[in-house]
Amino acid sequence: MRGLHADTGYLLYRLGLRSGQLFNTFLQESGLRLRHYAVLRFLATSEGALQRELSARLGYDPSAIVGLVDDLEKLGFAERRPSPDDRRSRIVVLTDEGRAFLRDTDEAGLRVTNDLLGPLEPAERAALHALLLRIAEDGLA
User: What is the pTM of this model?
Assistant: First the structure.
């Protein structure tokens, strides 16, 4: 019988948990969690998104997205605006305050990643990232 560490899926799961713990610790002072951060990062790469698009792209339950966007609006990091394509819909956009928050947290976010990947050499980190990106593009699209 194989041990747990022989199972790649389990290792990915455990590393994901550890990564989430490190990011949540780093975000704790701001009152945000990793899920909020993911929404902000996604919005930083777009001109805005419908809540259902955020749900689909991030893999979060639609009801969770509503709460996350509510939290980000209260902090002034995101806002809902009428959709130019459909007046009944609202898009979520990143505010200037949200962009500033992301800029201010870039260095700390890199430290979290560096702590997690500390045992790896730079070339190994690049290879791991490329492999995970390939899996994510295929399996999470």
Answer: 0.83
